[in-house]
Amino acid sequence: xxxxxxxxxxxxxxxxxxxxxxxxxxxxxxxxxxxxxxxxxxxxxxxxxxxxxxxxxxxxxxxxxxxxxxxxxxxxxxxxxxxxxxxxxxxxxxxxxxxxxxxxxxxxxxxxxxxxxxxxxxxxxxxxxxxxxxxxxxxxxxxxxxxx
Length: 148
Fold this sequence. Notes:
By secondary structure, the chain is of the alpha+beta class. It has helices spanning 25-35, 83-90, 134-144, and strands at residues 41-46, 49-54, 60-64, 67-72, 75-79, 95-99, 102-105, 109-114, 120-124, 129-132.
């Protein structure tokens, strides 16, 4: 890929032009990255206080009994969003779906183990662990190796 940047005071706004022979997944990812408006922080509730949670600090987000929680180290905050809304808000660069009810931050993963039933057990830097269902293992491995 060849990248050229032209800086000039005469330009009123930033414009991006891509020249390619044909459409590819690499171009698709590039366009998504350019257009992404991912949030930097989410608002959660801990006890009777509202707290700002930086997305990079979140290890995983899960839903349980109709509520959505964000886990960061030893703290857990309830989010006033649906799980799919959180997934859209944090973006797919750093987060990946682990199961129907869990989204995990791939930058917080320390190690993982494959279990006998095909699920993956993911250990986060804080020591927390979460399971990835077989359905989402391939996609997670691709993201972790830079292919997704």
